[in-house]
Amino acid sequence: MITEKPLIITCPVVGAELTKTDYPNLPSTPSEIVEAAVDAAEAGASIIHLHVRDEKGNPSQEPAIFQEVTEEIKRRTDVIVQYSTRGDASVTLEQRCAPLFLKPEMAALAMGSMNYGEDIFCNSPETIDRVLECAGSNGVMVELQIYDSAMLETALRYEREDLLPLPFHLNFVLGIRGGMEGSVQNLAFLVSKLDRRSEWTVSGIGGEQLPLALHAIAMGGHARVGIEDNIFYAKDTFARSSAQLVERVAAISLQAGRPVARTAKAREMLGLAV
User: Fold this and answer.
1) Does residue 107 form part of some domain?
2) What is the residue-averaged pLDDT of the chain?
3) pLDDT at position 90, please?
4) CA dihedral for 107, 269, 179, 40, sign (positive or negative)
5) Would residue 214 count as lying in a domain?
6) Is the CB of residue 109 less than 8 Å from the CB of residue 129?
7) Domain annotation covers residue 1
8) H or E element, residue 5
9) How far is it, in rounded angstroms, from Cα 90 to Cα 68?
10) Which residues constitute the domain of residue 260?
């Protein structure tokens, strides 16, 4: 039975891995990223997962760029902005933490290390502790990124040991080569480990984005959709934008009887200050 609880849609509008060769419509300048974020919010997203790029189009953790983009997004919409803290080996721990001193409402942190496609995703216990410390001291709500069951066990252990700034949110990222595959069985297994009161989101990668979003709607969870995770709207057909992907999931959720959470409702559900 599908719950009537509003669906929170998170939208990752750019990411750190894609290039314009992969996806010609990739936003990369601050103004392009702002436009993509505002369009996604208007389509139904209440959280924007934010990466930024430098003047050459390369991924950046430069606080000044995060600030510029965030201020313009906030000038045009009330959407929640969630910063990435990255995980690739090219970024130092202090670079990962630096944008958190801008005090965004949310930030994302993976709860372990793993092979990530052909690369290595580095999240040592020292890194996790430092990012959580920076988030907590700056009043930033952390979304714990869970790529496999070991990361969930780590997150639940941190919760038991009171090592997490409260409140926090969970996002299951399924379908990355090196992590758990994007199957409904894996999603159901991970959700079964949670307290029934826990709010969670699922990020399906590539072709698993829509199927897992549909199951999140049915299971009472939330969905992340956008071009960082999936650049296609249909087989061999690029999405026009992240907003197009958000719009589709919002429409399906409404048709299934779940309203889409606007930003004020998402803040209330997540325990963010309103």
Assistant:
1) yes
2) 95
3) 84
4) negative
5) yes
6) no
7) no
8) none
9) 23
10) 9-270
CA 265/CA 262 separation, integer angstroms: 6
**Tell me, what CATH number does 228's domain have?**
3.20.20.70
Residue pair 60/46 in contact by the 8 Å Cβ criterion: no
Q: CA-CA distances (angstroms) from residue 80 to 21, 30, 205, 263, 264?
A: 29, 17, 22, 7, 9
Cα–Cα distance for residue pair 254/243, rounded to 1 Å? 16
Q: How many CA atoms lie within 13 A of 150 on its CB side?
A: 7
pLDDT digits (tens, 9 = 90+) for 154-181: 999 999 999 998 899 999 999 999 999 9
What six digits make up the tokens of 120? 């290595």
Q: What is the radius of gyration, based on Cα positions, of the chain? A: 17
Strand-pair category, 59-60 with 52-53: antiparallel
- Amino acid occupying residue 206: G
Q: How many whole angstroms separate alpha carbon 13 and alpha carbon 232?
A: 13
CB 27 within 8 A of CB 36: yes
Q: What is the dihedral of CA 219, 209, 222, 6, to 10 degrees?
A: -90
Predicted confidence at residue 141, as pLDDT, reads 97
Neighbours of 60 (CB within 10 A): 20
CA distances (Å), origin 164, targets 81, 86, 131 = 20, 19, 11
Residues 6 or more apart in contact with residue 210 via CB below 8 angstroms? 204, 225, 248, 249
Does residue 42 fall inside a structural domain?
yes
